[in-house]
Amino acid sequence: MISGKNEKLRKALSVLILFVFIPAVVLSGVFIFRSKNYSYGIFAVAALSVMLFACGFDRRKTGTRRLVLAAAAVTMASVGRAVFSFVPGVNPITAVTVLFAVYLGGEAGFMIGAFSALISNIFAGQGVWTPFQMFAWGMIGLIAGVFSKQFAGHTVRLCVYTFFAGLAYSFIMDVWTVIWAYNTFRLSYYIASISSAAPYTAVYAVSNVVFTALLAKPFSEKLGRIKIKYGI
Fold first, then answer.
1. Cα 71 to Cα 93: distance, rounded to the nearest angstrom
2. 101 CB-near residues (< 8 Å, 6+ apart)
């Protein structure tokens, strides 16, 4: 009974973190703090991401092993972004986040996406946009983990998902662009922002497919073996 109650509390906390606390932090950074003290939002989203990951510890007894693999994923995604920084719109964060999330779970996927944005922005540039990026990439990883059974071992499905994930990421960041530029949200401004960013969005979405197609098979083999060996 106690274990059941703990599980319900963890699920409730996970929902609050994902759909209340993090969105509130992200939006307050844009509407209230603007360019002042944006580091508070970055720290808050990072802390909440770790809390979300910890919410899965009771269900998954291999929390430490998952954490090590998640750290490796963040490193890989961040280094990959640095390597391809000279090509506008091309970076492997979405592909790496999704591929690891499929084998590590939704909570880990969110943390990988969020921390990949945070760490890679050390060289790409931190700012008021960072919490939005953390949330966007985090949700991409979360969804991949939730639907892991549909994605694991299916390269075509993964490619389709990462393509639309690239579009979704850009659309979410366009929300930030409009709110930041006009201190409000209007559909006409949003459509204009999407239109102006269309070439960049297209390149990013297609590059996600390329990275996924190249990495899906080796990731599936390596992470699949690790998952079976360590019971992750």
1. 13
2. 108, 109, 110, 112, 113, 141, 142, 144, 145, 148
In whole angstroms, give the CA distance from residue 143 to residue 23: 16
Q: Per this entry, what is the length of the chain?
A: 232
Percent of the chain beyond pLDDT 70?
91
C-beta of residue 116 within 8 angstroms of C-beta of residue 93 = yes
Residue type for position 84 = F
Place of tokens 């802390």: 47
What is the reported pTM? 0.90
Is residue 142 within 8 Å of 18, Cβ to Cβ? yes
DSSP string, 94-124: HHHHHHHHHHH-HHHHHHHHHHHHHHHHHHH
Which of 132, 124, 145, 118 has its CA nearest to residue 60? Answer: 145
Domain 2-230 belongs to what architecture?
Answer: Orthogonal Bundle (1.10)
Cα 229–chain centre separation:
26
The two structure tokens encoding residue 184: 């409000």
Residue 206, sorted as left (phi over 0), alpha (psi -120 to 50) or beta, turns out to be: alpha
Q: What is the pLDDT of residues 117-143, one digit of tens each?
A: 999 999 888 888 899 999 999 999 999
